[in-house]
Amino acid sequence: MNNSVIKDLGLVSYNDVYKIQTDLFNNCLKKKKNEEKISDTIIFCEHPHVYTIGKSGNRNNLLINDKKLREINAEFVPVNRGGDITYHGPGQIVMYPIIDLDNYKMGVKDYIYFLEFLIVDILKEYGITGEISPGNIGVWLDVGRKTERKICSIGVKVSKKITMHGIALNVNTDLSYFNFINPCGFTEKGVTSVEKELCRETDLNKLKSKIGKEFILRLKSMK
Hints:
alpha/beta; BirA Bifunctional Protein, domain 2; three-stranded mixed sheet
């Protein structure tokens, strides 16, 4: 049907990528209204330190004030995705797919599962057992145990079956920034990263390439 385009923007501010996403998203909505073909765009990037919160999130899950935000060189940005508060920063793989779910006969829940199992299967290649936690979106480790911890956040916006926002996988991430929030609103669950689980840094570009290729392969299999 349509070709998928991967764009790797490197380290770029959240607001700059949000504008790029929004422009692509709105263009896709316009094309769909006019019954034109829509190509997939998959954006990869890293962000400088930023906390984002979804439209249904609780502002109290940010545990610091504006002065402390400035001290740790971080921003706080309300966004139009689902989910509560999360952190983005260097060493984290962020992927924002702008696709038409109708091209792949997927509903919103199907798409969330698609993203979750994509990351679960990729992590297996690194010897990490990712899991789905019932009622909790994202990819987790040690589900149902006291050591349950999150390694990948997922938050999307879907309108007329067009998607934006996506996933944030902690790879070589500075996890100390999660100490200043209740991640995704949770107070009793931890966070982790590929680096923390493997006790070594991981090649970010290789992992990013794996995710991008596998994402496109799985989409093609659903046409």
